[in-house]
Design a protein that fits this description.
Blueprint lengths: L2 H23 L35 E10 L2 E6 L5 E5 L3 E5 L23 E6 L3 H4 L1 E10 L2 E14 L2 E12 L13 E4 L5 E4 L6 H4 L11 E5 L21 E4 L4 E6 L5 E5 L6 E4 L38 E3 L5 E6 L11 E6 L4 E8 L2 E9 L4 E6 L5 E5 L4 E8 L4
Antiparallel strand pairs: 1-23, 2-3, 3-4, 5-6, 6-7, 7-8, 9-10, 10-11, 11-12, 13-14, 14-15, 15-16, 17-18, 18-19, 19-20, 21-22, 22-23
């Protein structure tokens, strides 16, 4: 049996075990966090795969404003000294002082195509940032034949009260290019071994979405590369003359959340269509179904393809949402201020306008909690202080600070 076939078979077994474990871990009769009517009549394949119950006790939070005045911020990271570095969609990169003061735009930032969902998107720090000062950016790059998601790295230099990017180098380009303005995906995370995972989209349109199943295309994939852009020799399709060697997993729609769990394993959150947002744990060489299988429907109410929620050779989502939450980001909570959130993923909700907290037991979701923030949430991070920071979406954006409190 081919290595990929073995992995698919293993993933199917693990998925069934995880679902059964979720069923045994949930108290019977728990009220789900999601109470709205679903868009479809689809039934989950696995127990506990959707509409997990709320926790027995709601988490109380106090919200304050840490940063304001952002022009459609898209992502942020904490620097080792407690400051932030923030991307703004139109193509601006800024440093933010510890008191929340926005710095001037940095020089050396690449030109971006900021139409629609495009622009300057994610940012990640090198694992050795404290010594090498390298940052990694993803953005929608204007190209001769359209645009596409590109990843570059550069050195953050601060001199004379000003900051800029030096030694700028493109290390990855998603191909083929396409003249569109949607589904760039575009989240970055470094694995414990220093490899860089990149989540992208399939550019939305029916003519491109099918390429999520095409291993010769870079649309609708999770990629794994070296920090300098090289291809790891142990990638599942390395050495193939028919597949892109950077591919780690495929069959993804639009990955806008990517994070590591406590064991250093990579997870993603991806947008579904009308219904069918997903939480997945992508493994090497596996197919996550889109558009052959989906728990959602087209925006006009018609079926996706044949209307299947499972297809041969594809892996089921660990968890899905119908109706959608609009998962813009994903982070794993390892702080101490919110002990109830230990071993939970925090997702930014563009549709639910707040945080979505899903608690794990093994690889299964056992509870889901909604934290309303009355704003579309674009990115979520945990600070060195253990507090949760949530970036709001839009032209007058903020970064909110969440700490334990008496209100919700």
């Amino acid at each position: 049996m081919h290595r990929t076939q073995i992995l698919i078979a293993t993933a199917t077994i693990l998925g069934s075990v995880a679902g059964a474990h979720a069923q045994s871990s949930v108290a019977a009769g728990g009220t789900p966090a999601e109470t709205e009517k679903p868009n479809t009549s689809y039934a989950p394949m696995l127990p506990g795969q959707t509409r997990a119950p709320k926790p027995a006790t709601a988490t109380k939070v106090t919200t304050s404003t840490a940063v304001q005045g952002l022009a459609s911020g898209w992502a942020f990271e904490f620097l080792p000294d407690g400051r932030m570095i923030v991307t703004e969609k139109a193509g601006t990169l800024r440093l933010v002082a510890k008191d929340g003061t926005l710095g001037k735009p940095l020089g050396g930032v690449p030109k971006v195509d900021a139409r629609g969902q495009g622009g300057l998107l994610d940012i990640a720090l090198s694992p050795g940032f404290a010594s090498d000062r390298m940052v990694y950016l993803s953005y929608s790059e204007p190209r001769e034949k359209g645009n596409g998601t590109t990843v570059a790295r550069a050195k953050l230099v601060e001199d004379g009260g000003a900051a800029r990017l030096d030694e700028f180098k493109v290390i990855f380009r998603q191909t083929p290019s396409y003249e569109g303005d949607k589904h760039y995906g575009s989240r970055l995370v470094f694995a414990p071994d220093g490899k860089l995972f990149i989540g992208v989209g399939e550019r939305s349109d029916k003519v491109t979405r099918v390429q999520a199943q095409d291993l010769s295309s870079g649309l609708g994939k999770v990629f794994r590369i070296e920090a300098d852009g090289g291809v790891p020799k142990d990638n599942p399709f390395a050495g193939s003359d028919k597949s892109k060697p950077e591919i780690w997993s495929y069959g993804h729609r639009n990955v806008q959340g990517i994070a590591l769990d406590a064991d250093g394993r990579m997870w993603v959150a991806e947008h579904g269509p009308r219904g069918g947002d997903e939480l997945n744990r992508p493994r090497a060489g596996l197919n996550y179904g889109w558009p052959e299988a989906s728990y959602g429907i087209e925006y006009d109410g018609s079926k996706i393809g044949a209307g299947k929620t499972q297809a041969p050779g594809t892996v089921q989502p660990v968890y899905y949402w119908d109706p959608v939450i609009g998962p813009s980001s994903l982070t794993f909570y390892e702080g101490t201020l919110f002990p109830a959130w230990t071993n939970s993923f925090l997702l930014g909700g563009l549709v639910t306008t707040g945080l979505v907290v899903v608690k794990l037991d093994g690889d299964a979701v056992v509870s889901e909690e909604r934290i309303p923030l009355d704003a579309r949430i674009r990115d979520v991070k945990v600070g060195q202080d253990g507090a949760v920071y949530a970036m709001t979406d839009g032209p007058d954006g903020k970064i909110l600070k969440l700490t334990p409190g008496s209100g919700t």
